[in-house]
Specification:
homodimer; Jelly Rolls; Arc Repressor Mutant, subunit A; six-stranded mixed sheet; five-stranded mixed sheet; DNA-binding
Chain lengths: 253, 253
DNA sequence: CGTCTCCTTGACGAGGATCAAGACCAGTGG
DNA sequence: CCACTGGTCTTGATCCTCGTCAAGGAGACG
């Protein structure tokens, strides 16, 4: 994992052309706030495998992912690590109020593009636009619930249930109107180790359980980073999750 | 667990006499907001063992705990349950923006007193007082971090480490100025089963590990609901947590 | 074709769950 | 005062899921 400075590619990119302007927090911006965000934000590019920030780093910006996927890692001193989540387009990295430091290490799983807003500009945005903070309240309370769900998964589910939950969650594509579609093919840009670190398992268990699912014809393993879901219902039953419980965008601090 | 209606004991209680007015979100209220909150809030009492709300219940109020302790439970359909946290004085139950339903079942571990504000009054508070929402931003981002820590605990720590984390966390008393003191005696108003459900263990494992700690002279078990810490350092080492990482108030949705 | 990384599979063992029994304790009633 | 009762906690014996260790397979890339 090599730290790279982010490349800033464009300083006048507009929200109107942004692929995530209709998702998550951006969706909730009013017209004038959107103009202001457009003015203050720049695109940043980060290469696959390099770190956006390390846990404890001074946080001088807020990022919204436009493209790619980034993992959020928390580590214990002896090397054990827990992946807190995978950030995807529309998801936020950073605190809209401007926190002092990052809580996680963020590493790009794929080449990614981020919308970057500097902390000092955040203060201006929130004081000029009263709806700015409340636009984030949805995201933060959503994230609290999601981490509660992850607590349940890590505390009370067995390996097969964890993998089933992971797969079904990635297969849900939430639409702008909060309806959703179930995808048949999902991409896994992360390694098996990343999945294991996310689910509180080992790489061997992840591999084994995927093989079990394959043998039961629940999934088809297209290749290392892509699986096809053959039996949504059985997986959903294994995941033992409420129907209806779908999350859209996440926020990482 | 019997549902009881809350008893409202006083409608004109002032924040100025409130035991938690100097904690958490209340601490951040300005004078005029504090007056307004005083006007809209009432005290509510809930008896040990009864439920404040069940997961999925319509949320028509926000609560701040003044006295007592309340557990927040999430359940799987087959009866397994995960306690997401224990809410204590200064902690919040509910969403300042007014959510539609509660995510957890809340049950009082002791007779408790709560400051209750109705959802419809929340809207008024937040529109009249721009600082109202931002006062909660600290709490929600704090809660996100805390649940991330709990993910690490549940995903990557072994039983002894989990218990050590639990004990050391409860032994930290955060002061108003964010300094803290380490308590030598801690109360455990919850049962061993509650502790197990919080830590992703079974009741037997909790009991065994406490006995191990006792035999190593790390703790003294005064009685079922009270333990004395004899060796803070060893427990802290077992917990493998960053020094410095202390949370004050929590929020549950 | 060799090397590197990642993934899969097998054998084995350990940590914690499960099952079962008994201890402790508060409350209740004789 | 003691016996009884029900709930909670502790302790022991056994089992099983998943972690650990080890080896081999499959791609990617030079």
């Amino acid at each position: 994992m090599i730290r790279t400075h982010l490349s800033v590619v464009s300083v006048d990119d507009s929200c109107f052309e942004c692929p995530v302007s209709s998702k998550g927090v951006c969706l909730r911006y009013g017209a004038s706030l959107r103009d202001a965000v457009s003015k203050y934000s720049v695109d940043a590019i980060i290469k696959k495998g390099s770190a956006l920030a390390y846990a404890g780093d001074r946080a001088n910006a807020l990022f919204i992912i436009k493209k790619g996927e980034i993992k959020a890692i928390r580590s214990l001193r002896d090397g054990r690590q827990q992946i807190v989540g995978f950030a995807r387009p529309g998801d936020i990295i950073g605190n809209p109020q401007g926190q002092d430091s990052f809580d996680c290490t963020f590493e790009a799983l794929t080449d990614s593009v981020l919308c970057k807003t500097r902390t000092k500009d955040l203060h201006k945005l929130s004081s000029d636009h009263p709806e700015y903070n409340s636009a984030f309240m949805d995201a933060v309370s959503n994230e609290i619930l999601r981490r509660g769900d992850q607590n349940v998964l890590l505390g009370r589910k067995r390996a097969e249930e964890r993998l089933a939950s992971f797969i079904t969650e990635r297969a849900i594509d939430v639409q702008h109107d909060n309806s959703f579609v179930k995808l048949d093919v999902i991409n896994l840009p992360m390694t098996r180790l990343d999945i294991a670190d996310y689910l509180g398992l080992t790489i061997e268990t992840v591999s084994r359980v995927l093989t079990i699912f394959k043998n039961r014809n629940l999934i088809k393993i297209v290749n290392k980073s892509r699986i096809e879901i053959l039996d949504h219902d059985s997986l959903a039953a294994l995941a033992c999750e409420e129907e209806s419980r779908h999350f859209n965008t996440r926020i990482f601090l």
